[in-house]
Amino acid sequence: YAEFDRPEKDISHVDGFAIRSQDVVSTSAFFPVKLKIVEGVNSREADKYALKRGEAVFVETGYPLPVNADAVIPVEAVRIEENYVIVDKPVYKHYQVFPRGSDYTAGELVAKRGTRVTPILAKLLIDMGFSEIPVYRRPRVAVYSVGDELRDEPYKPGAGFIPASTAYVDSEVIKYYGGEVVETAILPDDPKVIAETVAETLSRVDMVVTIGGVAMGPRDYSWLAIIESIGAE
């Protein structure tokens, strides 16, 4: 849960001039509005100044707006004449502004238990003030392709084998969803080898994924070997 609003104040999305949007609501290219630039305001502490009607204050990206300001016009989008900003089109409220609490507000649920910590979430947690969080260890997974016809090499027409390519797909899917693939291998169509390998591997990993040998043919031993030898359900 968030312990504070982010941002904690209205902040600027650009380097530009903070204004009151109501001051330029009727402006156009034919009837531009002139806003007086206020001198002497620290562009990184502009929230200490209360903006008055017809004024503009320069602010920097990521820093708070003056009191009463509700929009920012990028420096490249205005003309400056002497000590005035010339605005020739209307600007709506919160234009180029991140309003207070627009990322999250105090007390808001940001991440549930079991949520995968992605790079974006890691950044978010740091921005929320967390240096550490409790996490689950990545599950360790072994991936076994089953079949005498399989080879760990690309397909060659007429070669008489099938590439064990599905293991690569499954392994990458497991990695993508947070698992750690600790072992891959090709097992023969031998129920004893299948059962002994899976049983031994389960003593040191969290999950074994087998690929193949689960149909009703004379060489489909995977499911039967595991059920009979290991007592799997």
Protein model, in words:
This protein has 233 residues and is α/β, with parallel strands linked by helices. The chain is 17% helix and 23% strand. The protein has 4 helices and 13 strands. It has helices at 119-127, 166-176, 191-201, 222-230, and strands at residues 11-12, 16-19, 33-37, 55-59, 71-74, 79-81, 84-87, 97-98, 140-146, 150-151, 162-163, 180-187, 207-211. The strands form 4 sheets. The protein has a 6-stranded mixed sheet, with no helix packed on it. Strands 12-9-13 form a 3-stranded parallel sheet, sandwiched between helices. A two-stranded antiparallel ribbon has the order 1-8. The longest helix has 11 residues, at 166-176. It is elongated, with a radius of gyration of 32 Å. The chain starts with 10 loop residues before the first strand and ends with a helix. 24% of the residues are buried. The model has no long low-confidence stretch (mean pLDDT 93).
